[in-house]
Design a protein that fits this description.
The protein is α/β, with parallel strands linked by helices and 397 residues long. Helix content is 33%, strand content 19%. α6 links the parallel β8 and β9 (234-237). α2 crosses α10. It is globular, with a radius of gyration of 26 Å.
Length: 397
């Protein structure tokens, strides 16, 4: 979902940066002066532990300790002047930086999840220093990863990824994080005559950006209209959720869409009304709509970080489902959201724990066909191409 930034920018979670710990000791010197024996010990700071390059083969393990850290941990304790011993503290491993694109930061499963994971320390537990950047989704997110300005991204429509892949982009899909369209809803102005799907016929209906999951969902809506013998809607890329709300309220478009909890406040204020729910698009309920992907240059050198990210993502999502109130409070406090917690928690009504867990991509054969039908790609990807584009090697075993 793409390029323009929301007019009310989402405040991303604070980056976590912790320098490598320092420890070390010089040794013990024995000096005999005249008739007495004096024992002196002195301590000095060792250089910060250097990071160990990640290995794809170590995908399921936590980041390895650095050589300096290993040496310090295995060193024998220095003897004290009294003849006893004191333990040397083991230095903490340096966190590994991972630059992450977060599309539609005002959605619970993107910006909200990143905020909760940071606040609860789930990324840190996996040795990661997540450095998030907000994007508008779809092709914009893909461009950020392809250019190397970020290492990977979540919540990105598969059409955008397939389009980029056919053009030689160095990307790979590592997980599905949204199956079906149950977390999308379409709305119109409160006084609009549009009240149901059939009323979309011939109207201006928004999606975020080309190749986004909302682009696919709108195309599926047009298929439903055609099946009823109705005129398809005019589909327009309008940008992020705040931009679409403005466009609907000013009459530039007839129908906008959003993901929870975006624009639910406007519903409660009576400015707009929800007229269609994504769960009614039956053709899309068993396939991956959005996924996580990585720049292959990054993953080839940092496979363990990629696997660690997925573990932290899933741990965070399961925590959020089990602790809804606490999760929205953490998100609200971190992002300075204006909506009350009672409204934000309603986002969970549109989500399913099993469908939004990071997992293997579902329904790829259907997605491959739809990508051609909706002109995202010119011809279906071969099995070899699909095997190159999509991997399961970083998922929990």
């Amino acid at each position: 979902m793409n390029s323009r930034r929301p007019k009310q920018p989402f405040v991303m979670p604070k980056a976590m940066r912790h320098p490598a710990s320092r420890c070390g000791f010089l040794g013990i010197a024995k000096v005999i002066l005249l008739s007495g024996l004096l024992l002196a010990a002195c301590g000095g700071g060792a250089a910060p532990a250097a990071s160990v390059p990640a290995s794809p083969a170590a995908a399921a393990s936590k980041p390895a300790a650095s050589p300096a850290a290993s040496a310090a941990a295995s060193a024998k304790p220095a003897a004290a002047a009294s003849g006893g011993s004191s333990a040397v503290a083991k230095p903490a491993a340096a966190l590994k930086a991972l630059k992450l694109a977060v599309p539609q930061g005002d959605s619970l499963t993107t910006g909200g999840l990143a905020a909760v994971a940071t606040a609860k320390g789930f990324f840190k537990e996996e040795g990661l220093d997540i450095q998030p950047t907000s994007t508008a989704g779809g092709a914009t997110t893909v461009q950020a990863v392809v250019s190397g300005s970020v290492d990977m991204a979540v919540g990105t429509g598969l059409f955008a990824l397939m389009t980029a892949f056919t053009k030689g982009a160095p990307i790979q899909i590592i997980a599905s994080d949204a199956i079906g369209t149950g977390d999308l809803y379409w709305y119109a102005k409160a006084d609009s005559p549009i009240n149901k799907l059939e009323d979309f016929a011939g109207k201006k209906v928004a999606f975020t950006n080309r190749g986004s999951s909302s682009n696919l969902a709108d195309e599926a809506i047009n298929d439903m209209l055609k099946a009823k013998g109705l005129k398809p809607a005019e589909l327009l890329p309008v940008g992020g959720f705040p931009d679409q709300l403005t466009a609907v309220k000013t009459g530039q478009i007839d129908v906008g869409l959003a993901g929870p909890p975006a624009n639910l406040g406007a519903v409660e204020r009576g400015e707009i009304k929800i007229v269609f729910g994504g769960s009614d698009i039956t053709a899309l309920q068993s396939e991956t709509l959005r996924g996580q992907f990585v720049n292959t240059k990054y993953s080839s050198q940092n496979g363990d970080q990629v696997a660690a990210f997925i573990r932290a993502y899933n741990k965070t999502w399961h925590y959020m489902v089990a602790n809804k109130t606490d999760s929205v409070k953490l998100w609200k406090d971190d992002a300075k959201l204006q909506d009350p917690e009672s409204l934000l928690v309603k986002a969970f009504d549109y989500l399913a724990e099993d469908k939004n867990t990071a997992q293997a991509v579902k329904g790829i054969d259907l997605i491959n066909k739809q990508a051609v039908d909706y002109k995202a790609i010119e011809k279906p990807l071969t099995q070899d191409e699909l095997n190159k584009l999509i991997t399961t090697q970083y998922l929990p075993k």
